[in-house]
Amino acid sequence: MSRAAAISAADGFRFLVAQDGRRLAARLRRSSPAMWMGVVLPVVLLGGVLAAVGSGAVPDPGDAAGGGLLGFMAAAPVSFFAYGALYRGGDRAWIHALGAPAGAVFAHRALRLLLEAAVVGVLLLIPYAAAGISISLPLVILAGAVLASWSLGLLATAGAASATVGSGGPAILRAGLGWDRELARVAPLLYAPLAPLVGGVLAGFWIAATPGAGAGRAAIVAIAGLAILPGASALFTRANPRFVPRVAEMAFEPPATTETALLPHRGIARLLPERVAQVRARDAAVAGRRFSWAQRIVWPVAIVALVAIGRWGHDPTVRSWIVAAAVLTLIAQGVAGVALGWHERHRTRWLDRVLGLGTGVRYLGRWAWAMGIHLWLVVPLAVIWGLWSTQPGWWLWLAGAAVVSALSAGASLLVARA
Amino acid sequence: MTGSAPLMARGISKAYRGVPVLREVDFEVRSGEAVGLVGSNGSGKSTLLGCLTANRLPDRGSVAVCGHDPFSDPGGAARCTGFVPEHPFLYDELTVGEVLSFVVGVRGMDSEAAGAEADRLFSLFGLEDVRPRYCGELSQGMGRKVALTLAMLHDPEVLILDEATNGLDRPSVDQLMGELERRRRTGAAVLMSSHDLDVLATHCDRGLLLEPGAVWRMLEGDEWEAWREAPSLSAGRDGPGRDSRNESN
Questions:
Q1: ipTM of this model?
Q2: Residues B45, B39: contact at Cβ < 8 Å?
Q3: B224, B33 Cβ separation under 8 angstroms
Q4: How far apart are CA A357 and CA A351, in angstroms?
Q5: Do B80 and A90 touch (CB under 8 A)?
Q6: Measuring CA to CA, which residue among B198, B153, B139 is closest to residue B174?
Q7: What's the number of CA atoms in the CB half-sphere (13 Å) around residue A341?
Q8: How far from A297 is each of A82, A375, A380, B103, B194, CA to CA, in Å?
Q9: Is B61 helix (H, G, I), strand (E, B) or coil?
Q10: Distance from C-alpha of A90 to C-alpha of B90, rounded to nearest angstrom
Q11: Hey, are the CB atoms on B89 and A91 less than 8 Å from each other?
Q12: How many CB atoms lie within 10 A of CB A287?
């Protein structure tokens, strides 16, 4: 009968890592401009921005508060990457169906998250290096913060997954989400990033508090982080059989109950030619539902930036921070545009072809959508910059948005193989 | 029901956002038997197959594959199951040979024996030269044949095929059915869905009919023979077969 046999977690891990290696090598062998635009360009742009703003973009690592803030900057993205690293991926269900040992899958996903966390750490070192500041202390703080948030992220996310397949977690977590039963059911997952975030901040704070003992403290954090991994792996293994199918179900979105038609002639979109306006409205609807975060991230950045300019706009450091935050937001929105291209490539590109929508129309429509979401950020910033910061060049905000949207729309169509 | 059936489902219920799709579905597929899963679009076929293969979490009920619960012993269930979903996953950027070596490794199979079996199946499906081709370059039918090969490679006791004949030309369907017949003779249990009702009528021993509203009917014996005469997706109360839900309640 069946010729399949159980394999060890170590063997499974080896196969999964080798598979990743083969996929990466194949992608590099067959790399295209679209891949470089979609994957490498955002990283290069981000690195360039961080190098350009220099030490103004990062805190002074010489005191505990600065260390804590640096820990926060490292831990925040790692905390939010944890769920994706553990549970997302097109091959998730297939690997599960093949019967790969859950311990192997956990180790493989943990390695992926560690690599992502390392990229975050390296990016945060760029401003120090660009400003000619020694990177030894920031490196130690970042290593500790990254390892703390990595290990706690794995533990908290696996624990949250385990809770959702059980009782749904502590009642106190569900209490604030009671209006939506589906949301309340996954409450532990929504709160899971808090633990690694706090852990990263505390690690950075603790390591920077005594810079002379920083390396030793970072080593202690690393050992503690490694010590909790078996627990995280056990939680992952316990939750996996029932949580993997739930992941697919959580991605299910109920049918829309409000809009029944696109609204192509809203606001300044009235100025667009008819077909361009239709493409813009379609792209806005698809991206608005699939990448809704691209619009939501504007509000916290805009509000904080407006307050900061109004209160401390004369301070060059504050202005540097605001520029960095706004540029990062624009890049993040640009990434959503590129992601829209990826989505289109595998699904809906055929529709535009049969409708006879040429590349020019599609480009203008996508640019108009991208510019539209940028405007929600740059218009208030430009107004307040011109009024309160005492700095000239308010129009640069609009020009910057136009450039980013032009680039992201182009990259999006390249990725979609338009 | 016999306790030794390789595939058993007991009281499977599943709802999406409060809308029931499956209600108390209870059936088994015995060794050497083929059961056809029949139903219109959205009747819950893929959901049921997902519940059997641990790709969907049933709200209630239990599943046993060769005695293993896929939710508490996923490794044991995976070792004796071959599953091809409606949209089989293949890594676009890898060659068929590379995916094959990965599957052989993760399934803990002897690579020489698995390679020989893969060659036999590729040859059967007319894919002799497919190993160096990238999965992303395969046609829908070729991709399905590769997925079928990967699913049958380890001689599973249970074969579950969702939309088994999608994208396959007629000769390929015949080859597939011949291969399933051969495996059934050695004791494999087959559960498959297809919109090609003639294929199900010809090659299955019993049928599980899913109807909208989470109603299911097991068609067997004379009822199955009657259904085979005039295959239909929507056999009503006055049609052949009996409402197993009402019977079980």
A1: 0.76
A2: yes
A3: no
A4: 9
A5: no
A6: B198
A7: 29
A8: 19, 13, 15, 41, 45
A9: strand
A10: 9
A11: yes
A12: 23
3-state secondary structure of B12: strand
Say if CB A15 and CB B106 are below 8 A apart. yes
DSSP one-letter string for A128-190:
HHHTT---HHHHHHHHHHHHHHHHHHHHHHHHHHHHHTTT-S-HHHHHTTTT-HHHHHTHHHH
Cα angle, residue B177 at apex, residues B176 and B181 outer, rounded to 5°: 120
DSSP H helices in A165-273: 171-175, 181-185, 187-191, 194-209, 214-250
If you ran DSSP here, which 8-state letter would residue B36 be given?
E
Token digits of residue A149: 């948030």
Contact A288, A336 (CB under 8 A): no
Q: Are A256 and A305 in contact (CB under 8 A)?
A: no
Torsion region of B143: left, alpha or beta (phi above 0 gives left; psi -120 to 50 gives alpha)? alpha
Q: How far is CA A276 from the centre of its chain?
A: 30
In chain A, pLDDT over 90 holds for what percent of residues?
41
| Cross-strand pairs, B38 | B209
Terminal CA-CA length for chain A: 49
As a whole number of angstroms, the distance between CA A238 and CA A276 comes to 51
Token pair 């590379």 is at which residue? B98
Q: Which residue has the tokens 């829209």?
A: A340
CB contact under 8 A, B79 and A98: no
The candidate with the shortest Cα–Cα distance to B163, out of B39, B25, B31, B14, is B39
Closest by CA position to A208, among listed A63, A82, A391: A63
DSSP assignments along A280-324, one per residue: HHHHHHHHHHHSTHHHHTHHHHHHHHHHHHHHHTT-HHHHHHHHH
The chain-wide mean pLDDT, for chain B, equals 89
Whether residues B70 and A99 touch (CB distance < 8 A) is answered with: no
The pTM assigned to this predicted structure is 0.76
Phi, psi of A168, rounded to the nearest 5 degrees: 100, 10
Q: What is the mean pLDDT of chain A?
A: 85
Q: Give the model confidence (pLDDT) of B21-49 as tens digits.
A: 999 999 999 999 999 999 988 899 999 99
Confidence of residue B186 (pLDDT cuts 50, 70, 90): very high
B54 and A245 within 8 Å at the Cβ level: the answer is: yes
Neighbouring-strand partners of residue A2: none
Contact A19, A100 (CB under 8 A): no
Residue-wise pLDDT for A129-162, tens only, equals 988 888 999 999 999 999 999 999 999 999 999 9
Q: Which range, A35-39, A46-50, A324-328, B200-204, is most confident? A: B200-204
Q: Name, in order, each residue with C-beta under 8 angstroms of B247's C-beta and a sequence gap of 6 or more.
A: none
In chain B, positions 145-164, which contact chain A (CB-CB < 8 Å)? 153-157
Give the closest-approach CA distance of A259 to chain B in angstroms.
20
- Which amino acid appears at position B48 of this protein? L
Give the side-chain half-sphere CA count within 13 A for A86. 35
Q: A6: which chain B residues are within 8 Å (Cβ-Cβ)?
A: 75, 79, 108
pLDDT at position A389 over 80: no
